Structures
1.
Amino acid sequence: MRKIKPLRTIPLVFCTAVLMALAACGGGAASSGSSSGSGPAPTGTPIKIGVRRAGKDPFDVSLTREVIKVKSVRFRLEAGDIGYIRVTSFTEQTTSGVLDAVEKLKKESGGKLKGYILDLRNNPGGLLDQAIALSDAFLDKGEIVSVKARKSEDVQRWNAKPGDVAGGLPVVVLINGGSASASEIVAGALQDHKRATIVGTRSFGKGSVQTIIPLGSGNGALRLTTARYYTPSGKSIQAKGIVPDIEVLQDVPDELKSRTDTKGEASLRGHLKNDGDEKTGSQSYVPPDAKDDKALKLADDLLHGIKNSASAAPTPGGDNKATADRPKAAN
């Protein structure tokens, strides 16, 4: 089988959709070993696709049909006593994946865990019910999030039930300019209840609710913004985001400096305005090597007691910037 370089100019979602379509239809004339009949070809069977590139001779690539499973939760043990859990998106399996990660980390550490790091950086969001369930997993009581529409009586609230999967151990949540929507709901809930210390850079600011209204058969649908998300203390996420308790700026390579800041919701044309002061985007760079990750290092230090949240708050001229503009809880 000939190895090829990934086509970075073609979105991964598009490539995945093409491969899934080929697998479903048996690959057509380009396939080998395709199943008979009109049904989807079985997994584990081969398929051959042709690749054409500008200025290059076309060639074939042999693939094997498989079900594409996107894992939204990854975890590892840091320094032998810190549970690191990375959530890349909020899918149907996210909360169950985090609960499973917590149990496995407890066993792997021999019951010696000092705390957890929940990494939500560059997580664009996903399912609301999973954001609520994940927040609930770390909270014993209190409101998680509310949704408020134009009319004052049109309010929905979700509250936590008793039970903390972390058993009261400290939690640090990592966010950045790429953390949006469901990620901001989780970070906002844990921050307002003082259940976690939020570290990183200000989040994206996607705090609006869209409703899909069907327009009848063959006429498509209308997506209408109908409400806003609010954190337990009454702060609107929209066009402002979640401000971390401790802001940490990464050291960005020179060749990437022009591409590591997200614009944020407030920079989008036609965005839903915030009731108060709006904030544009922030840094979204995460070093590929964990040893260069300043936010992760600070989280480790906090959980090991090397620093506390007060001493970690940077002084003027230091590596990090204090978050003096962090909004106060609403009355």
Note: The chain has a mean pLDDT of 82.
2.
Amino acid sequence: MPSNAFLRFVNLMRAITVLPAGISLDPQEERLMLELAVHWGRGESVTVLAAMRMLAGASPSTVQRRLKTLRSKGLLMFETAAHDARVRYVVATDQGQAYFVRMGELMQQAVGRR
């Protein structure tokens, strides 16, 4: 049986699946955002090619479509590398950063109540 804190966190996470302006994330987009957060949290830059290999069980073309969808939703952008115009990095936008901040707040809310 899951703990009460975990259930509160799950319910709070559901609240963020709909972002401001009615933007919603599907489960693969959520997983991709979380994977990117882990890499960025370690100070790593993530190329589009590396991001395409992040979701186990999803083909690279599926992940690339999700990256483009997240870009169209304003959460991500692609920046071309200064050293090689063929290399593009996945970068969080201000709205993407706000998504991570909100997720952190929700986690603190869930854990804060015992």
Note: The chain has one domain: 4-112.
3.
Amino acid sequence: MQYRIHDMMKLPEHGHCENCGDPIEFGEYFCSDACSKEYESDVKEAKRLDNRFYILMGIGLVITAAAAFLVKIYIL
């Protein structure tokens, strides 16, 4: 059976929760305060992990540069 677009029921205008994806009223971002807090917690944790990554990459870059400098001085 083929469905045509005009044969389908139209859904009311709606959005989806940023955290869990449940349908919500258009213009809203979260379905509940619990979802809002969970989303904020997840974003905060992601930022914390990003900062750790940048710090570790910076330390790695400094160590690599120092090792290259020391190799150049003492070995070459």
Note: Helices lie at 33-74.
4.
Amino acid sequence: MVESEKGRYFLLEGNRQYLPEIGFGQKKQDVFFSINTMPHYLLQNLLSQKQATVYLALLRLGPATILETSKETGISRTTTYRMIDSLIKMGLIKEVIKGRKRLFFAENPQKLIDLIEIEKKAIEAEEKEIKRALPKLKELMKLSEGEPKIRIFEGKEGIREIQKDILLTKDLKSIEEFVPLDEAYRIFPPHKRDHRHYMAKRINVPERVIYSSSKGPILRPIQGPIKRQFVPVSKFPFSLEITVYGNKVALVYTKTKIKAIVLENKEVADSFRSFFDLCWQAKNGPQIEAQN
């Protein structure tokens, strides 16, 4: 052991080595590891921080009691005992009885290399098992490809996540929507800088909207790539907002709590889109002009 102004250091013999916190040690020369940085190095490779601290303390102290180790590390006696017990099971610490005292000492650091070798063999064995199982796993994946993927969202943040998903959808060709406008305006009151203007500026694909409103046809029938049809609430009192985009369908319910479900499946999306087409064509008579 060597003392320095920055703290205590351990002296190890070996080939050229490097630690980010310390630097290079020259070949056939001494490599110094700081007691302050060594636990972090071990933490990243093999041991937890407390295990590494206890192990290094016993390397420095030699045979020591639980109390002595606890004082040296600043770790409570109970935790020190647990760390020592785990290190004994790993083969890094041994116990000896001297008189009435139970003493613990660190094994040769070479044991660390032995443990790493054991871990490497275990990982290699796991890799072989996974490779053997891979064909079966791929078959399961193929079976699940036809199943709709379902995601659930809650609250206003969930609605914003769906809006982002629409903007990020690749190869978006069209958007179809059923919108209960009274509910939509209750949750997100309209203003000049709301998300509707933001979305309209960034979506450059045909968008068709069938909306209901207790205030009548208040939206423009045509606005850029957006086409709208109004239905009176008295005749069509729907409260579920439905948006079909790409291979996804978003169902948003806001009457009690804001909840949304996004189904991702081409057949499901195409079915909803066909139903929308049916409604759109059925309503494709003379359009009532917006009141403003």
Note: Residues 1-36, 286-292 have pLDDT under 50 and may be disordered.
